[in-house]
User: What shape does this take?
Amino acid sequence: MYTISEVAKLLDVSTHTLRYYEKENIIIPDRNENKERLYSDMHLKWLKFVMKLKQTQMPIAKIREYARLFEEGEHTTQARLELLENHLLSIQNQLETLASTEKMLEEKINKYREFINQSKSETVK
Amino acid sequence: MYTISEVAKLLDVSTHTLRYYEKENIIIPDRNENKERLYSDMHLKWLKFVMKLKQTQMPIAKIREYARLFEEGEHTTQARLELLENHLLSIQNQLETLASTEKMLEEKINKYREFINQSKSETVK
DNA sequence: ATTTGACTTAGAGTAAACTCTAACGAATAT
DNA sequence: ATATTCGTTAGAGTTTACTCTAAGTCAAAT
Assistant: This one.
């Protein structure tokens, strides 16, 4: 079991953020006799998954919705599947946008480099 | 030349957002005799570039910085190059994150599909 | 015994990026 | 002539996701 500051360090988030996620019903850790939060390996695994969703632009509200469906039990598997399928589509769109912007930027960067090199050689003249 | 609502439609943003970008010094269109905004093809091209940067998570502040460097003239090419190079790195990081999350989601989705199919066949029994 | 450090809570504050409102002006449609 | 449409401005309001503050509890270290 991990304390809130251990989890914060492990996942590179602030303790504030972890408490905020709890308030938003995204992760509800256990408590010790002293009411302090204790996170298990399962909690950690779920949080890592949440971070992946966050890093790929899933809003907190959608993550909360997925968490809620999970809590509701097996009859929500179809809904969870659909939510994940939608997010997969969003990821694929983002991949396309990023790839095309990457290409565009590489071209622009090359033009800048050419321009800068040309300016330098003219300066030497 | 395009009016603000034409540009809004063409680029799928609101007129509010276009005025906001102007306030943020990201795009300054011309004006007609009636003080109404008029965007040229050059403005449109720049706006499309801005949208690409936005879609790949460049903050407005950085976009404004790039615009400002551009206004300042040729002696800022090195700074502009560096800004674009940094954003290219950010895009490459995002691509990695998205690719690995895509893989993870595909696996999870497959497990959900298996589970749902299995449940169905058991229901038939 | 007291200080230090890590934790607790409720709730306030912040930053980014819009998004909307109100009050007005000009041009076109009926 | 008046109503509608499209534009203008300054500035207020909203949403998202934190981020911080204040006041307190508790256990270990000096």
About this structure: Chain A is about 75% helix and 5% strand. Chain A has a mean pLDDT of 96. Residues 14, 16-17, 20, 24, 34-36, 59-61 of chain A lie near DNA strand D (CB under 10 Å from a C1'). The longest strand of chain A covers residues 30-31.
